């Protein structure tokens, strides 16, 4: 199955499950009068919006180049992942705001939790866990930052839901409303950390950080017979998805056909090790030999 179609299929599936989770949380929240569960339902709604955003991003994130985007559209996916990271940050502050609200108005914690409410929340937790693990495995297999970011958000939801379940159970067993507030801080920190992980993994791609170390490219190039030197090496992109490599290559061969075959061998070896690679190789004759990487 083509990459874009499979990512869209996964996003549609997670969208359906996130909407189901949101509906269950909203129903439990309204039935119990729990502001925390209602807020968690709204948080799940942002997950559904993130899925919709991911589907829209995939509409434009094809790696195939066009006249306006000669290097493809993969950075649209990174931008989408950062958008999801921003949603994680918003969710974090929502949790903290809810905690402050409960401190200022303890009556907001007066909820009527039943065993059925807890059972439905556990069901929601199981669905979230399935979605997170399924989406993360798919992201690792497809090397999709967008799916990985969405999976990170779902893992953040699991912490939020765990906090809500623990708080609801605590209120049900003891009547101590402050349990929810006490759990809000670690939950928010977990959500914030998930967002930071997404940012950390996508910013280097957007700012064209080196994708493959020059020494590794030089070792591959100089392993081909006829290559004297490889220098002025630059690379950017995402290993496994799309990497652009530029280099100057000094060869001992006097004819253009042989030099061309050498560059093709280098491109093939780079692709075998790093996945899809587009290489621009400037060939120089032996008299231009240099022994430093620029």
TrEMBL record:
Domain Cation efflux protein cytoplasmic: 215-285
Keyword hit for rRNA-binding: no
One cellular component (GO) term of this entry: plasma membrane
GO molecular function, one term: zinc efflux antiporter activity
Keyword Iron: yes
Membrane-protein topology: Multi-pass membrane protein
Name of the featured protein: Uncharacterized protein
């Amino acid at each position: 199955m083509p990459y874009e179609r499979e990512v869209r299929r996964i996003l549609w599936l997670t969208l359906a499950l996130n909407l189901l989770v949101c509906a269950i949380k909203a129903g439990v929240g309204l039935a119990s009068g729990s502001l925390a569960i209602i807020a968690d339902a709204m948080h799940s709604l942002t997950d559904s919006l993130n899925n919709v955003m991911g589907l829209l991003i995939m509409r434009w994130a094809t790696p195939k180049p066009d006249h306006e985007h000669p290097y493809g559209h993969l950075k649209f996916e990174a931008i989408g992942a950062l958008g999801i990271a921003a949603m994680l940050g918003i969710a974090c502050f929502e949790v903290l705001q809810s905690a402050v609200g409960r401190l200022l108005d303890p009556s907001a914690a007066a909820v009527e939790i039943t065993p059925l409410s807890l059972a439905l929340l556990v069901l929601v937790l199981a669905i979230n866990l399935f979605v997170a693990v399924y989406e993360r495995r798919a992201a690792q297999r497809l090397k999709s930052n967008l799916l990985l970011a969405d999976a990170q958000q779902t893992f953040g939801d699991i912490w939020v839901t765990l906090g809500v379940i623990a708080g609801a159970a605590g209120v049900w067993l003891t009547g101590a409303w402050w349990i929810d507030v006490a759990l809000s801080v670690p939950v928010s920190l977990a959500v914030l950390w998930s967002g930071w992980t997404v940012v950390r993994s996508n910013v280097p791609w957007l700012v064209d950080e080196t994708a493959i170390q020059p020494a590794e490219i030089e070792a591959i190039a100089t392993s081909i017979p006829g290559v004297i030197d490889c220098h002025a090496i630059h690379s950017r992109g995402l290993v496994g998805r799309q990497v652009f490599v530029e280099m100057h290559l000094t060869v001992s061969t006097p004819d253009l056909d042989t030099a061309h075959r050498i560059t093709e061998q280098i491109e093939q070896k780079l692709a075998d090790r790093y996945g899809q690679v587009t290489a621009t190789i400037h060939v120089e004759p032996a008299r231009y030999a240099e022994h430093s990487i620029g």
